[in-house]
Amino acid sequence: MSAQMTVTELEVFLHREFPQMFQGTSIAIEHADGRACRIRETYNDRMLRPGGTVSGPTLMALADFAMYVVLLSAIGPVGLAVTTNLNINFLSKAPAGSDVIAEGRLLKLGKRLAVGEVTLYSAAGSEPVAHVTATYSIPPKRN
User: Fold this and answer.
1) Please, are residues 30 and 39 in contact by the beta-carbon 8 Å criterion?
2) What distances in angstroms separate CA 23 from CA 6, 36, 66, one per listed residue?
3) Domain spans of the chain?
4) At a CB cut-off of 8 Å and minimum separation 6, what does 92 contact?
5) Architecture (CATH level 2) of domain 7-137
6) What are 67-100's pLDDT values in tens digits?
7) Is the CB of residue 125 less than 8 Å from the CB of residue 133?
8) Distances from the Cα of 115 to the Cα of 10, 26, 121, angstroms
9) CA separation, residue 89 to residues 30, 68, 124, 131 (Å)
């Protein structure tokens, strides 16, 4: 499947339709091609939980955003596509001071549902810090 939106088109659309995702953080779409994506969130102290690790809510939000990006890159600008399920397994500590990278890919894209997975990494290492599976609901096309 070829991409329906370029990285630039995704960024313009998301900043217009989902501006709250970019407040207080620096998220960059490094790659999106209709099948996979790579997102980077620049480290900041608001990401931390006690103990000096990146918080679970930070990782979940980034994974959900990555899934949204890869889905939109595949289907085009459908703002009302929504998460119906997200499951996360935390694998290791995401240390303070390093960016977090999300690599997402679609596993199945149907007319009404999309299933994908996202692997999260700390820029400080090569081992995953979390693995996510997610399902998105795609609204019906209107004529």
Assistant:
1) yes
2) 22, 25, 16
3) 7-137
4) 127, 128, 129
5) Roll (3.10)
6) 999 999 999 999 899 999 999 999 999 999 999 9
7) no
8) 20, 26, 20
9) 24, 19, 19, 5
